[in-house]
Write a structure and sequence with these properties.
Strand content: 5-15%
Number of strands: 5
Distance between the termini: 13 Å
Largest sheet: 3 strands, antiparallel
Strand order of the largest sheet: 1-3-4
Shape: globular
Number of helices: 6
Helix content: 40-55%
Length: 179
């Protein structure tokens, strides 16, 4: 009760059962990015970040990254850069309000269109889309930012737009049909 995966949350948003504000998108993105940054500072690569390994608590709204630890050793191709790419897929899931995977990755124009067509377009959302499209999901791994740079970028978006970790930023609307 009070928790769900980002995958389930995005699925509910895609069907109209849940409304995810752009402020909440930024707050949850920051939570996930800070978790990845903390792992990377400890020289740990998660190797399996996805909408299914991010758990969202509703009271208060907070995202938590599930990490199984060394017993579930990540695939050999995993790297900090791969974690950042997977982080970008979670950001796209938040931004588009539907589950996004490497196989269903939208092109840059769809991400930019989402910034204009969002349910409640706030000033930070276009910057958030640029972060997703041009940085974290870059096909060239060497051009992807570090998790620390992602956190700094998100923090700058919040500061630039006067956002903070307030209740308003983390607001979730559940439709009458889901309540």
């Amino acid at each position: 009760p009070g928790r769900t995966s980002l995958h389930q949350m995005a699925s509910a948003a895609a069907t109209g059962l849940l409304r995810i504000s752009s402020g909440l998108q930024i707050a949850l993105a920051m939570d996930i990015a800070m978790a990845v940054k903390a792992l990377h500072r400890l020289s740990i690569v998660h190797g399996g970040i996805s909408s299914e390994t991010v758990v969202v608590s509703f009271l208060p709204s907070k995202a938590t990254l599930i990490f199984c630890g060394p017993a579930a050793s990540p695939p050999s191709y995993s790297s900090d850069s791969q974690d950042v790419y997977e982080l970008g897929l979670c950001f796209a899931t938040l931004a588009l309000r539907r589950v996004v995977t490497a196989n269903t990755l939208p092109d840059v124009s769809e991400l930019r269109a989402a910034a204009c067509d969002a349910l409640d377009p706030d000033p930070p959302l276009p910057s958030f889309m640029e972060l997703i499209a041009q940085m974290t999901l870059n096909k060239d791994m060497s051009l992807r930012p570090s998790s620390e740079e992602v956190v700094d970028w998100l923090d700058a978006i919040c500061v630039e737009n006067g956002l903070n970790d307030s209740a308003e930023l983390r607001h979730i609307d559940v439709s009458d049909s889901m309540a």
